[in-house]
Structures are given as structure tokens and as C-alpha cells.
């Protein structure tokens, strides 16, 4: 999943690169969704899980599942084991792999801000020096990252009611932070992100 800050426009306008940030689109690709589902199957399995078992449980072809698992292996999230007792396992315990880790490994950073910060190979946004919108997108990206970083693969395959309670608490905290901002108070600092 990532935020795409490229402006969406008609095909005629698409030929001209926009020099403004535009608004981010939050999209979870089919690949990212399937990767999360396959990882959840591996996390829920006892020991090594075969391609056939994952494909059958997810309603995917064996060929498509093999491609997905190849991407996950390249991303360093799983390892394959050959032989009679072969299959796939996670490289770290399920508790140590977050949804954010998976989405970032497969689809890139959650918030693409190169144009906004002027670090892209293209022209920087014309509003770079005076943009009041960029902090909104950056804050939203940090909140999304913090939420997804707090959910592990173990949470996805564990007690569903517990996960729903945690998500409800996170939702309430975000709403409370919004109420605090409305009252002129500062939002709590987002946890540091990898690479910053």
C-alpha cells in the first residue's frame, strides 16, 4: 500500500507532468493483499507450509502462488525448504513481522513524498516552500505507518476479537488526537520510521 501523490487527471492532461503534489490515493494492490494472505497462512501453519496448501486455502493457482512466494522470498520475509518435508517458513517469528513491513517490502514506502520534498528526479512541486497541505499528507502517512506497524502477522492469525479491540482503541486514539488538534493542542509525535 502506498500513497501516490501524482495528480490524477484526464489522458490529455496526463501528457503534461503536473508540478503540484496533488492528493494521495490510498491503494492496497492485489499483490500486497495476496502477499499478506499468503504470509498469514504460513504464520498460521505448523512448521513448513507447501505451495499447494497455500494455493488451495487462498483460492489461487499454484503458479500464481509460486510467483507471490518468490516475491516474499526476495523481500526477505520467508525462506523455502526443499525435500520431502519442504515448504515455506517465516524468516522471523510472526510477532516480529508487521503489516507495515510487508506492505513496504512489496509496494514501497507508504507515503511517496519525493515531489513534495524536492528530492525527486523531476521538478519539485511549485508549492514546496509554502505548502500547507504537505504536513497533512505527511501526518496521515505517519499515522497509517504507526497503525500498520503495530499489527503483526501473529495478530492477523490470532484472536480476532483481541485484534478488533486493538483497532477500536487505535481508532479512538486517532479521534481523540483529532479532537485535541481541533482544540489547538499538538498531536502526539508519531513513532520514528525506519530510514529516517
Number of domains: 1
Series of secondary-structure elements, N-terminal to C-terminal:
EHEHHHEEHHHHH
**Shape from CA axes?**
globular
Helical run tally:
9
CATH architecture designation: Orthogonal Bundle
Tell me about this structure.
- This protein has 196 residues and is mainly alpha-helical.
- It has one domain (2-182): Arc Repressor Mutant, subunit A.
- It has helices spanning 11-14, 30-44, 51-58, 62-74, 99-107, 114-117, 134-149, 153-157, 160-182, and strands at residues 2-4, 25-27, 78-81, 87-90.
- The strands form two sheets. It has a two-stranded antiparallel ribbon.
- The chain starts with a strand and ends in a 14-residue tail after the last helix.
Features:
Arc Repressor Mutant, subunit A; 196 residues; two-stranded antiparallel ribbon; mainly alpha; globular
Topology overview:
Blueprint: E1 2-4, H1 11-14, E2 25-27, H2 30-44, H3 51-58, H4 62-74, E3 78-81, E4 87-90, H5 99-107, H6 114-117, H7 134-149, H8 153-157, H9 160-182
Antiparallel strand pairs: 1-2, 3-4
Concise structural overview:
The N terminus is likely disordered. The protein is mainly α.
